[in-house]
Amino acid sequence: MAKASATPVLVVDDYATMRRIVRNLLTQIGFTQIEEAADGAEALGKLRGSNVGLVISDWNMEPMTGLQLLKEVRADVRLKGTPFIMVTAESKTENVVAAKEAGVNNYIVKPFNAETLKKKIESVLGTLE
Amino acid sequence: MGQKTGVVETAALTAADYTAIEAELLNDPRTRAFLEKRDAHMRNVGAAAGGDLLGALRAEVGKLQSMSHQLGDGSIAIAGQHPHMHMMRQELRQLSSHIEQTKQEIAQMVPKDSANSRILAATSELDAIVTATERATSDILSAAEAIQATTERLARTGHIDVIEIATDIENHVMSILLACSFQDITGQRTTKVVNTLRYIEHRVAAMIGIWGVEGNGDAMMPTKPGDTRPDAHLLNGPALNDVSQDNIDALFNAAGAPAAAPKPAAPTGPSSQSDIDALFD
């Protein structure tokens, strides 16, 4: 069975800084296949054109937000089972509830640390070690 | 044919007819006596009616004079009874003056030379801050990544002491990387302020348009149209106070399954990661 860290990951954030940080953290915990997208629409295109096994997405992006992306993924027959982690500064209860209703697998509030990211990824994909 | 009504209709009488009838009546002593008596009677009735009319007119004039006096005294009385009237007039004058002054000040905010626009300048300054911090963060990340590459080379030497030092350095570099995420948070906060400034700019332009104050509307930056994203009502940006991941986790674990999750009620404050995790358990 393939290691969880062999899963192709798509990092979606409109801030290049954040994409770079998350990419670095993912590399540190063993991921080697990492793609990036700057908003929901670009991410959806990449998801439909490849075999991404985990989406780590920001929420507040334009033109397509992370929540819209999540709903598109869950509505797509081929993509609907893709694990999806929301990483966002939006921290109100209604945000978490809305994301969960839409089918998010986990939710990380910014700013976060490496341990939190690793723990949430493991809760979705299984142990990385 | 027509029925008799018993009413004798009055025939039209010319001046010649009148003179002729009068002469005829005066020839007969009896009819002449009737005319004289009738004339005397009519004079009495006319005098009485005139007297009544004159009395009534005098009464009306008396009333008007009385009302005139009352009005004259009344205006003084009203002023006396409502001392706030004068104050209200003063307040209205001051309000009018203040509106005029505000119009002039607003006009000065949008001078014809758009480069001098204070709001525009403030927006540009904030944009410059975002650009500068983004560039600086990128430089810091590049340096941190270079250190990471170096520490990996150190670790490959195989010396246990060096490996320990390399691991220590690696942990510190990771802290630097994570600290760089400030650029995302501050960037979002600054964007909110920039959008607010643009909104104010738009409203000021609208006010100038309404009042017809001279200004250069073309110099205004285009206002961002209303956010049409379906989840725009959920986008509030970073919370003012730090939110712990533990609280977010609790909230997440407490939330029901997607199909059964409760509808959000009134907007609430920021949640911690623990709260979020609780929604998901």
TrEMBL record, chain A:
The keyword DNA-binding does not apply. The keyword Disulfide bond does not apply. It comes from Nitrospirillum amazonense. This is Response regulator receiver protein. The modification 4-aspartylphosphate is found at residue 58. One of its GO terms (biological process) is phosphorelay signal transduction system. It comes from the Bacteria. PANTHER family: TWO-COMPONENT RESPONSE REGULATOR, TWO-COMPONENT RESPONSE REGULATOR ARR22. SUPFAM superfamilies: CheY-like. Residues 8-125 form the Response regulatory domain. PROSITE patterns: RESPONSE_REGULATORY. Keywords: Phosphoprotein. The lineage of its organism: Bacteria, Pseudomonadati, Pseudomonadota, Alphaproteobacteria, Rhodospirillales.
Automatic annotation (TrEMBL), chain B:
Residues 258-281 are annotated as: Disordered. GO terms for biological process: regulation of chemotaxis. Residues 258-270 have a biased composition (Low complexity). InterPro entries: Chemotax_Pase_CheZ. One of its GO terms (cellular component) is bacterial-type flagellum. GO terms for molecular function: catalytic activity. It comes from the Bacteria. This is Chemotaxis regulatin CheY-phosphate phosphatase CheZ. It comes from Nitrospirillum amazonense.
